[in-house]
Q: What sequence folds into this?
């Protein structure tokens, strides 16, 4: 997030796009609720489904999945046309505005209405509400990013914030709500193929030189490595021979699971380090038992860039060991000395090579955490980014054009399918499905079907149906509901026996490498 | 805009606070504790329990509730004089006239605010005799037990459910002596819109609401509370794992945090997986298609040997590492260091996009 969680309450306008906040980030959902009920904050929700957020909104726009870029361009079109742009901010802090203006000129409300299914009048209303808020904050999640045009979706929101000057001040900004406890930290720590910690490029010679010295190795690889999808493709092609997986379950989280399984089966050697014998671990040659979050010390970095302490509460179960110890033991066996007495020593090393974490240590983190950038030991942390100046100097408008999703409904597969989470489970559900009460409240995956579609298909609430895409099929139970609109269905990603990702396709955003989970085409057959 | 400051005297001490501050807040700023049952700093003031009454010399007709009474210039407040103490004693006697004194088996024993104040004010029994209410316990759902016989009608559960969660699963129903907290049509919680955040349990000053998975596993004073970070979504809520005999037996709030103490159903009740019988407790090596238990030495030697051999034969780029959005920063740091410095490849990624 460019801004902080607590600032949400003081926003004049919240534009929540592609975020089922009350289910996926419930405690941020409470902040939004307090904002609208106590402070009179206006809430605009953009979501294809009637989520709780949509029900609470002052204005809800219901576009077809995969049309975000067109919709946001439409908002910017109205803002510029109606003179609602922050010209002083554009003049002083940005560049390339003319190119943006030209690019959005075609996205008139009428045209955008045609693409998105959102009435033109609502597009105008939303643009006016967002642009006239003194502090307007954008919240978004995977509804924006999990598209072949996900990066463009994010850029279009950056354009929207820039054009109205809603960035670099409290209670504004472009705020992704990160979905996993330490997804921010895994990125910050260089768990990506092209960067070391703090997004320092592996392709930069001086950076490599720094890490070569810090890690005491003769050299480090200079070329960016493979992204997740390329790793799987490499496994399939036989160029990737071995994969070491720590605390991930790609055989639930990858798209087109039937294909992903074939890729992993083609490996010479697979090591999985986990709490449970997950779908992925079952394919492994060696499985290493890891300690849970409650059995070790460490830190997680949350969605507002806050580094928080994780503290050991109980001893590891059985012979399980914390992941950091397992990695050290493996490194030592492979001839590289890696010895730490406690994670605090690892954090000290992180701080020594990572400018944005340089001011952090366990003593300082002991008091509610610190938000990066925190460049030195006297620095209080940074609640919001881009104050006064952007990291690159001027904020650059990057015009983006709408492109349709890779697969659209047709005669053979006539329904849109979109996927996501529900409140009671989490991601691949390795953890939550081992909590009896959560399973009792949400025992199975439900395919949400609009009453009109249900009538046409001749299916009733609770029926088991066959949902089929070009990749595979699953047999979920049906929930008839107006949370979806006619032509659109939804299923959660959590249940392995009705795994949503059997249906999704492995097409990716070319820049970020994210799969298009939010748009697939399916057909549904009644099972007699 | 600078706030207008108001000067007043509380228990003989001068204090200057912004206009609009309540007497309760002004007293807190001096470190003076006033007892409350229905108050919470994040809920809209209800002034329901009357336990926080104080004497204000300028207010002749009654003892105002400190939680609801704004400060006035020149007020002289007594928070703990005999008249105030007597009034509070009466309030407590009225409450326990219709409250079971079953502290021996109550989950809340030791943490109960009613018990605490009865102790402090020497209230052992109630002189007020009459009919008492008795309701069936609702434990229709996996997480929240509702024993309305113990409810003192402070309304904090209703307010947190409506004001903070926006769920409105419960409200005051009926009138007068029959007033109780209930769901629509007084049904069971499982049939209500409740989303089991459990915030009502945390707010409840007595034992009317309890966490079902924690029942019988230890009172507040039996457990060690370990402050940590929730392992689910990216909000990173701070919470306290309640530990007894090397087991997690519950989760409680940490109010002074970026999540203001609030949690969702997963953060509050989703810890059971840690103790699942499915947990891997020994390394496993697959031989002839079947997993066999192995020692750490055996398993790690095999991994080191295999990765070393593949690196030697095909080069480092034939190996890839998938690090984890679930593991700690320290573990992610070491994992990428291992992949880059030990294996010698940048083939590292994780499920950030998934």
A:
């Amino acid at each position: 997030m460019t801004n902080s969680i607590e600032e949400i309450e003081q926003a004049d306008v919240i534009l929540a796009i592609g975020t089922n906040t009350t289910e996926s980030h419930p405690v941020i959902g409470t902040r939004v609720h307090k904002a609208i009920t106590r402070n009179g904050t206006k809430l605009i929700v953009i979501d294809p489904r009637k989520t709780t957020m949509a029900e609470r909104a002052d204005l809800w726009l219901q576009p077809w999945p995969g049309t975000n870029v067109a919709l946001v361009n439409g908002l910017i079109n109205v803002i510029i046309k109606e003179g609602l742009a922050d010209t002083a901010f554009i003049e002083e802090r940005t560049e390339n505005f003319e190119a943006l203006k030209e690019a959005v000129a075609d996205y008139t409300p009428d045209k955008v209405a045609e693409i998105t299914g959102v009435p033109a009048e609502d597009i105008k209303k939303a643009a006016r509400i967002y642009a006239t808020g003194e502090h307007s904050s954008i919240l978004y999640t995977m509804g924006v990013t999990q598209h072949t045009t996900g990066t463009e979706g994010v850029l279009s929101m950056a354009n929207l914030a820039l054009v109205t000057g809603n960035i670099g001040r409290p209670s504004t900004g472009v705020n992704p709500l990160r979905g996993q406890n330490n997804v921010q930290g895994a990125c910050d720590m260089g768990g990506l193929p092209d960067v070391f910690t703090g997004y320092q490029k592996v392709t930069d010679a001086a950076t490599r030189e720094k890490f070569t010295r810090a890690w005491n190795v003769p050299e480090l690889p200079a070329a960016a490595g493979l992204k997740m999808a390329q790793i799987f493709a490499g496994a399939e092609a036989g160029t990737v021979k071995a994969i070491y997986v720590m605390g991930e379950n790609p055989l639930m989280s990858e798209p087109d699971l039937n294909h992903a399984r074939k890729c992993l089966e083609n490996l010479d050697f697979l090591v999985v380090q986990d709490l449970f014998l997950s779908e992925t671990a079952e394919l492994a040659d060696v499985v290493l038992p890891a300690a849970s979050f409650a059995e070790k010390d460490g830190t997680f970095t949350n969605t507002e860039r806050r580094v928080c302490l994780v503290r050991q509460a109980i001893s590891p179960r059985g012979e399980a060991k914390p992941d950091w110890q397992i990695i050290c033991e493996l490194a030592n066996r492979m001839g590289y000395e890696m010895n730490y007495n406690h994670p605090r020593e690892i954090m000290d090393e992180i701080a020594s090579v990572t400018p944005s974490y340089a001011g952090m240590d366990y003593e300082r983190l002991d008091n509610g955490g610190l938000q990066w950038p925190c460049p030195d030991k006297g620095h209080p942390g940074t609640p919001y980014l881009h104050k006064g100046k952007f990291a690159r100097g001027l904020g650059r408008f990057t015009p983006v054009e709408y492109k349709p999703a890779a697969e659209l409904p047709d005669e053979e597969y006539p329904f849109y399918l979109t996927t996501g989470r529900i409140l009671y489970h989490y991601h691949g559900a390795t953890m939550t499905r081992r909590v009896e009460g959560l399973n009792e409240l949400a025992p199975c995956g439900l395919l949400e079907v609009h009453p009109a579609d249900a009538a046409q298909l001749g299916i009733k609430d609770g029926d088991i149906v066959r949902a089929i895409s070009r990749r595979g099929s699953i047999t979920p139970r049906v929930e008839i509901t107006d949370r979806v609109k006619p032509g659109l269905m939804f299923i959660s990603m959590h249940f392995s026996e009705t795994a949503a990702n059997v249906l999704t396709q492995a097409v990716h955003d070319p820049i970020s490498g994210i799969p298009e989970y939010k748009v697939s085409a399916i057909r549904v057959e009644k099972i007699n | 805009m600078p706030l207008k400051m108001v000067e007043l005297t509380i228990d003989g001490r001068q204090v200057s606070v912004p206009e609009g501050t309540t007497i309760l807040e002004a007293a807190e700023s001096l470190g003076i504790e006033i007892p409350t049952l229905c108050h919470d700093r994040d809920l809209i003031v209800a002034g329901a329990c009357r336990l926080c009454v104080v004497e204000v010399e300028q207010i002749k007709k009654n003892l105002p509730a400190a939680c609801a009474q704004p400060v006035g210039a020149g007020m002289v407040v007594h928070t703990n004089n005999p008249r105030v103490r007597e009034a509070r004693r009466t309030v407590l006697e009225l409450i326990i006239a219709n409250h079971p004194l079953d502290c021996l088996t109550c989950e809340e024993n030791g943490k109960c605010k009613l018990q605490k104040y009865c102790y402090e004010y020497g209230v052992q029994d109630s002189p007020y005799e009459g009919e008492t209410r008795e309701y069936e316990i609702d434990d229709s759902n996996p997480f929240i037990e509702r024993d309305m016989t113990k409810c003192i009608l402070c309304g904090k559960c209703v307010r947190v459910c409506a004001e903070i969660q926006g769920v409105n699963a419960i409200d005051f129903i009926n009138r007068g002596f029959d007033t109780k907290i209930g769901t629509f049509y007084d049904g069971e919680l499982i049939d209500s819109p409740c989303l089991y955040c459990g915030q009502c349990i945390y707010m409840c000053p007595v034992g009317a609401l309890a966490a079902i998975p924690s029942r019988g596993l230890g009172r507040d004073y039996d457990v060690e509370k370990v402050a940590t970070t929730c392992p689910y979504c990216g909000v990173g809520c701070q919470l306290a794992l309640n530990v007894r005999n090397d087991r997690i037996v519950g989760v409680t709030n940490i109010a002074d945090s970026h999540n203001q103490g609030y949690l969702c159903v997963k953060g509050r009740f989703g810890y059971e997986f840690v103790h699942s019988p499915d947990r891997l407790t020994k390394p496993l090596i697959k031989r002839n298609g079947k997993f066999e238990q192995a020692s750490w030495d055996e398993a790690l030697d095999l991994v080191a040997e295999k990765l070393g051999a593949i690196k030697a034969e095909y080069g480092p780029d034939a190996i890839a590492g998938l690090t984890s959005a679930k593991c700690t920063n320290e573990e992610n740091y070491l994992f990428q260091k291992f992949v880059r410095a030990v294996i010698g490849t940048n083939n590292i990624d994780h499920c950030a996009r998934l």
